[in-house]
Amino acid sequence: MMEEGTVSNQSETLLVHPAVKPLSFLLGTWRGEGQGFFPTISSFNYSEDLQFSHSPNKPVIAYSQKTWNLKSGQPMHSESGYWRPKPDGTIEVVIAQSTGLVEVQKGTYDMKEGAVKLNSELVGNASKVKEISRVFKVENCELSYVVEMATSLIGLQPHLKASLKKL
What we know:
mainly beta, two-stranded antiparallel sheet, 0% helix
């Protein structure tokens, strides 16, 4: 039995920083499949690994995500960044994508709902993308998310959705 405020990560038990404790349900590696769509592209399916890791002396969660083509196994997209939860239920997130696009997001988390909701404050190095929102939810041992996107020509609408299981 683990003590409250600890997480098990690859047979190691680590203390969780108090700022990260409300989001400790995210920690670990998740794997699953998703779908991508948008009015200006052909729909596609992908496999994904998503990892949330944490160093106990830091009030931050490291985030990394990689996708690959479901049929060919070829790499498609990757991104990484940091999630900084605040005691008041707000969260600040920075994400750098392999395409060169950078997101600065702010949002909220609700540990009772197992949900994190993010909206872009800034989308940098993108000529067409103007806004990105992300909603993550853990329910019944499954992590699902929806990413919405707006471009200079099309308003905010769903772009990606996936369902992942913890490894």
